[in-house]
Specification:
The protein is an alpha/beta fold. It has a single domain (2-179), classed as TIM Barrel (Alpha-Beta Barrel), CATH 3.20.20.140. The protein is 20% helix and 30% strand. It has 4 helices and 12 strands; from the N terminus they run βαβαβββαβββββαββ. It has helices at residues 20-29, 46-51, 99-109, 159-168; strands spanning 2-9, 34-37, 59-68, 74-80, 85-89, 113-115, 117-118, 121-122, 133-134, 148-153, 171-175, 178-179.
Amino acid sequence: MLLKVALHAHTVRSDGTLTPNELLRRYAEHGFDVVAITDHDMELTDEDLARLTVPDGMLVLRGSEVSYRELYWQHVGHIWGETKLLRILNHPRRYGMTSDQIARAVRDHRFDAFEITNQGEYCPQFEGLTIPRVATDDCHYPEMMNRAWMLVEAAERTGDAIIDAILAGNVEIVTRDGPKPGPRRG
């Protein structure tokens, strides 16, 4: 199944401007099937998840954007499936990283993927990397929403299946300008 996925979105719980329910409603208006709420250095609790008003058909993944001390406080996305964790090197372009530095960081720190977008802007200088990639809009306020996303070909609508698909490269990177290079293997 093909799913429109956002894996990097913030709410008023950290530095976003929307409540979790407002964020989910607005992503649903843009046709998203899956949204991970990734507030800084915190994740949704079971109680938080139970209080959410989730739009029909949407899957909400638990996430967090962690300040990673071992890499000079670089931000790392943590996305939880039912039993799996996806660790993403967030916004390497913002930190001035080269492709070689990204590859080294992913290898040395055991990240699973990296963001090939910077707040929704595609970073073609990283196309040569064979590491799994994700596209995000890094939404902090409504105008940032729906700038970049992934179309993920997953076996089913579960967090673990989405993580498996991302790791297998069954992803199409899309921005407002259209699809980007790289096959969706699905």
